[in-house]
Write a structure and sequence with these properties.
By secondary structure, the chain is mainly beta. It contains 5 helices and 29 strands. A 4-stranded antiparallel beta sheet has the order 2-3-4-5, with no helix packed on it. A 4-stranded antiparallel beta sheet has the order 6-9-10-11, with no helix packed on it. The C terminus is likely disordered.
């Protein structure tokens, strides 16, 4: 029994230490810019954290025990819960159309309507590099999974050294992230290219365009190997399943189609958004889909349920529960964006989802909050406006 008690105490201490580390990391990320300019504000900011955080407890105890003699102002309207905003990353001067993580999760690529691509350190939030990739708006970006460790501009280590961009100039380009130069172009669509994705095995690229077609390209030769047709309007986004057996596409017709690459036919039709669907992507384990739309929402879907659900019905409002009943394949809906959502992506672990909004902001969300909230994606920093990159966690 004593051994069990000792083990329980060790686990408890480990959990408390883990929470303290999380609280400190969140605090430093959130107030990095303020602390760099005015480090003396650290105590006041810590003391005014939500009561549930370790920093608030430590700060108030040190004040009560007279360990700290700094003067500070107690906020009467301080947040009850931890603020979701981690950092504000400024660079883009135009609306952000596309976002994606590197396959190892250490970097984020973003692209805007002016044809500029920016590459960020996902942990520290630093801008690593940026370059003019196209002269027209970039619609989508996708990272080519790498198998060797590389360095991007000497500041961030990543196994991915190549990236694909799709633009309204009807071109899809392959880029070397180390040199910021284009290695290859994929040309063939009759309309502007709106979406692109790289297969997990790095053997082919999938593009979608205004011409309502989806095309597959050999990444080595640059030749077209397959064409898929089925959408009624422009196809905005595409994604490849982890096993490379399925392609998912989303369109201006408000439909998400799931394609079997072996047969070349659509095997499922997923409905739920109320406006143009701009992007769709898989989680790394292939169990979930994430979609973004002009209806200012992002939706989380069960991929297997999307495949097996034959009857497509609209969401129904439950007056007794005062909430919308979800479709069987829909896991959650995020309705906190302040403008049209242009793009979305999963982190490699599937823990986080990132979305790019027309207001120039990029949001980072925690997908695990689904078990604690009916609406998992909550945007709380409405006071910040303008074309910025905005990173949050709920």
């Amino acid at each position: 029994a004593p051994r069990n008690n000792r083990g329980s105490k060790d686990v408890g201490r480990s959990q408390r230490a883990h929470k303290q580390i999380q609280d400190v990391h969140h605090f430093v990320m959130q107030y990095f810019e303020t602390l760099a300019v005015e480090p003396r504000s650290c105590f006041q900011l810590a003391a005014n954290q939500p009561d549930s955080t370790s920093l608030a407890v430590i700060a108030r105890e040190s004040w009560a025990d007279r360990i700290s003699r700094l003067s500070w102002v107690k906020w009467l309207n301080k947040a009850v819960d931890v603020e979701p905003c981690l950092a504000t990353l400024r660079h883009h001067k135009h609306p952000v159309n596309a976002v994606c993580f590197t396959s190892d999760g250490v970097g984020i690529a973003t692209a805007d309507e002016n044809g500029v691509v920016a590459f960020w350190d996902a942990y520290a939030g630093n801008l690593i590099s940026f370059f003019q990739a196209h002269f027209l708006s970039i619609s989508a970006v996708s990272i080519v999974p790498g198998d060797e460790r590389g360095v991007v501009r000497g500041r961030i280590t990543s196994s991915d050294t190549q990236m694909v961009t799709a633009s309204r100039d009807k071109m899809c380009r392959l880029w070397d992230l180390r040199t910021c130069r284009s290695d290859k172009s994929f040309i063939g669509h009759e309309g502007r290219i709106l979406g692109c994705a790289v297969s997990p095995d790095s053997k082919f690229i999938v593009t979608s365009a205004w011409d309502r077609t989806i095309r597959l390209w050999n990444i080595e030769s640059g030749e077209q190997i397959q064409e898929l047709k089925g959408h009624a309007n422009a196809v905005f986004g595409v994604a490849v399943s982890p096993d490379c057996k399925f392609v998912v596409s989303c369109s201006d017709d408000e439909h998400i189609l799931i394609w079997n690459l072996e047969s070349g036919k659509a095997v499922a039709d997923v409905q739920g958004h109320d406006n143009t669907i701009t992007k769709v992507c898989f989680s790394n384990d292939g169990s979930k889909l994430l979609s973004s739309s002009y209806d200012m929402t992002i939706k989380l879907w069960s991929f297997q349920e999307c495949l097996t659900t034959k009857r497509k019905g609209e969401a129904v409002f439950d007056e007794e529960a005062n909430a919308w009943k979800r479709m069987r394949s829909e896991l959650a809906t995020g309705d906190g964006h302040s403008d049209r959502v242009q793009s979305c992506a999963f982190s490699p672990s599937g823990t986080y989802a990132v979305s790019g909004c027309r207001d120039g902001m990029v949001y980072l969300f925690d997908c695990n909050i689904t078990v604690r909230s009916a609406s998992i994606f909550v945007y709380a920093s409405r006071m910040i406006v303008g074309p910025r990159v905005h990173v949050c966690v709920c």
